[in-house]
Structures are given as structure tokens and as C-alpha cells.
Amino acid sequence: MKHLVILGAGTAGTMMANHLSHELKKADWKISIIDEKEEHHYQPGYLFLPFDIYTPDDIIKSIEEFIPKHASLVKGKIDKVEPKENKVKMADGSELNYDILIVATGAKIAPEETEGMKGSEWHKSVFDFYTFEGSLALRNKLRNWEGGKLVVHITEMPIKCPVAPLEFAFLADSFFRHKHMRDKVEITYVTPLSGAFTKPKATEALEHLLEEKHIKIESDFAIEHVDNEKKEIVDYGGRAIPFDILVTVPTNKGDEVMERSGMGDDLNYVPANKATLQSKEYANVFVLGDASNIPASKAGSVAHFEAEILTENILRYIKGEPLKEEFDGHANCFIETGNGKALLIDFNYTHEPVEGSFPFPGIGPLKLLKESRMNHLGKLAFRWIYWNVLLKGTHIPFVSATMSEAGKKYN
Amino acid sequence: MEKVIAGKTIAVNEEGYLTDFKQWDKAIADELAAEAEISLSPRHWEVLNYLQTEFKNEVPLSIRKIGKSGVVDIKEFYQLFPKAPLKTATKIAGIPKPASCI
Ligand SMILES: Cc1cc2nc3c(=O)[nH]c(=O)nc-3n(C[C@H](O)[C@H](O)[C@H](O)COP(=O)(O)OP(=O)(O)OC[C@H]3O[C@@H](n4cnc5c(N)ncnc54)[C@H](O)[C@@H]3O)c2cc1C
Question: Please, what are the domains in chain A?
Fold first, then answer.
């Protein structure tokens, strides 16, 4: 009997376990999936928790609930992969041998990369919202905060869900408005990029929204350190931005297990072929989700599209057929803009987000790159879809794994 | 688009980055540096040469990578090319503005 091992039972790993348990013959293949945690978190919910829109119960379920019967869930910390030996070593000393390995260990924040970030003000006036703890601490702070300077900040790219910090700024505007204290809060958006986003058309639309909501933008800011005494962030050029609350997205990195295994790049991301998702170094290793170094967004929707293509490629690999070079970097993200509205963007490696309708060309019902209430309902529905459709590896009707150019306004 | 730099007609994009590295020479670098109010010292040239080598080897550029390159640390990179060093330095070096992937 052959053994397929999946590292990480988060969004991507869970989807692959579900896809493959349908596709691989039980008599021939054993599937194991490893994770050190008990809980599966709906990470997009971390954006809503600080504003009391979601409760912890909305975003936490058990990992076990989503693992298919025919896969065995191994609980524990992965110490190391020995890809030349086709072996995974666990922290408790046990070992697993594999025929095929899928790396889905995700990405996480590394505030220790920036001097002073995880200092005396950490989770007191310096917060992240990329972890459950950070998001909850921020909720408790915002509940009683009386106003001042709120700075929303990105340390460096790439980060998971690159639109999340913008959404945070928009939701903060809406939150303080509803509390009738918007005039007491000054919101500044600080980014290492030259503008609000990385792609020109979306940047234009998003900068317009920032202006409309009186959110100041400070661009080209490469942070050097956080000054906990003066409460300011300072960049390498000496530019200082004061804060009363700093909401930062620290450097994101892949898990250290990839560094220990000698499989990661300088940020512990695993080099993979961007069209097939096969590891660049080891033919029987595949990488998907945030753990990969491919130039696609680190988002759950991307992992979903990747999982459909990777499933087919694993079946081809087993049969000895050439892999399909099909993944095009397709991403589909809702951007909450506050006041019960949202934008939707749909893009890939080569096509930037533009205006149009989705998923039915010319009809919608969702509008691309334009604020609408329908898009907001789409974002809220995403949580239900995540738990009930995405994790189970079910195909979403009308939304293909590769991007469609129909219904979009390219010049 | 085209622009006359150091007496030559050069192909550039809307942001003024050269679109054909073959057209680049040192006189162009000097003039582009002057536009950014920088006068190029030997130290600047070490950094520019490094950036061009990385570009030729198709290595994606980022502030982090440059900080770890051993050629220059980030602090000095900012002193040499103030404000937005990576954008300014790549423009002077005649190579594309680094696309930060998302
Ligand atoms: C604030 C926020 C908002 C977001 N919003 C959106 C959104 O609106 N839409 C969207 O599509 N995406 C969004 N995302 C991104 C999305 O959550 C991630 O892209 C997705 O979860 C990635 O899945 P993954 O499986 O690659 O990683 P993860 O889901 O993080 O899973 C990795 C798993 O590996 C395990 N693991 C790692 N190392 C080890 C080890 N050494 N031993 C044992 N186990 C290990 C971890 O415990 C974890 O369970 C958001 C993310 C954040 C943080």
C-alpha cells in the first residue's frame, strides 16, 4: 500500500484530503494528514472579530470535523522533512514514510523580524489582527477606546490576503462612525507599496475610497523599528509616524519546519512550479496554499482553485503522465469597504483586477471593482461557503479554477 | 513613450523607467540621478551594478533581499537613494520597477 502524506490541516491541506479521499483507491493508498492544532480557524473572520461583527464561536471549529473518514489525522508537531529519504519526522520522535508529500503548512506572522514590534506595547497599543489572540486583544481595546491616532500598517510584502489591512481601515471608519466618534479618530494607512494596492486599476479605485472615507495614506514606508516609548513607527529614511493604536501586519513567513528541512527560501516559502504546483526540487513533493513561493495571492480562494488543479496533477503523477500546466494564479477576493458594502476583485498572474460582472458575464449578480451591497452579502456568505463547500473540496458552481476573461472590461 | 536623456532618444514607460536595458549607459544614469537630486558616488555605483546583475540573473528584487545581499544594508540604501530607494535605484539602473507580487 502506498502512502500520501499532507503536512498541515488548515484550509489547503483539508481541501486536498477531501479531494483525494474521493479520487484515490482505498485499497492502494493510505492518506495521512498532520497538524499540531486541535482547532480550525476561519482566518478571514479575524478581520471582523475586532469590530464585534463576529464572535469567536463563528470562526472556530475542530480540525477533526472536516477530515474525511478515510484519511487519518495525525496530531503533533512536524519537526522535519527529509525529502531525499521520503520521510517526515515528528517532534515526538515518530516517523512517517511517504510516496507523495503535499506541503500545506501555511504562513504566519513574524513580528520578531522588526525591532521593537513585539516590545512592551505588544497587544497593549501595538496589535496584529492576523492571529486569534491579536484580533481578540484588539476587540477588547476598541470596545472602550476613546479615540486618537489609529495607524493601520503593513510591514512588508508578501502577506496573506493582501487586501485585509485595507478592509481593516475601511471597517474601522465605519465602526467609529456608528459609535458617533469618527471625529475623534484619525486613521492613517501606512504601506511599503507606492499606493493602496499592487495593481493599477484596483489601486485607483481603492485610493478613491480611502479619500472618501478621510483615511490618510502614507506610502513607500519601509519600517525600521517601532518606538514603544514615543509610540511611533520609524522607517529607514527616518520618517516617523505617531500612533495611539498601531494595527500592524508583521512580516509573514512560512513555518520554520521548512527552514529546518532546508526546503524554504529566505522567508521559508517552498519553491514550486507556478503552473503545476510541483516542488522545484523534488518530483514527489507538491506545494499549495500560503506555504508556496508562487507569485499568487495568499488566499483561501486561491488554495481552492489550486486544489482542483493539484488533485488532477497528483492523479497524473501517479499514472506517470505529464502534469497539466494549468494554474494561472486565479484569485477572487471580496474587499469589505464598510457600511454594509464590499468590492469584488477577480484576477490572475497576467490579468489585473478590472471592472465587470461576476460570475455571469454581463449579468452578475456580483459587480467587479465597484462597491455594492450584494458584494457585502457575498463576503458574509463566504463564511458559510468556507465551512460547507470549500473545505469539503466541492466545486463551486459557475466559478472555474482558471480565470475567465468574459464580462470584464480590459482596455 | 520616448524621452531624450543625455542627448539620446530613449524608450521609457509612463513612470519614466527604461523599457530596453540595452539603451542604458552611464551618462543616462547620471542624468536620471540628477533628476532625483542624487550625484552618483562610487558607493552608488556598487549598488547599481549589483541591481543590474540581479536583474540579468532574473532574481526578483526586494528591500529585504538587498538588505541581506552583503552589498549594502537597508539604512545605507536609504541614505544613498532617499525616500523610495528601490524605485529610485532601479530607475537609475535602467531596469524595471520591481513588481511586488500579491
Ligand atoms: C485576517 C485574514 C483575513 C483573510 N481574509 C481572507 C479572505 O477574505 N478570503 C480568502 O480567500 N482568504 C483570506 N485569508 C487568507 C486565508 O485564510 C489563507 O490563505 C488560508 O487559510 C491558507 O490556507 P493554508 O492551508 O495554506 O494555511 P493555514 O490554513 O494557515 O494552515 C496551515 C496549517 O499547518 C499547520 N502547521 C504548520 N506548521 C506545522 C508544524 N510544524 N507541525 C504541525 N502543523 C503545522 C498549522 O497548524 C495550520 O493548521 C485571510 C487571512 C487572514 C489572516
Answer: 2-106+255-319 (3.50.50.60), 111-251 (3.50.50.60), 331-390 (no CATH)
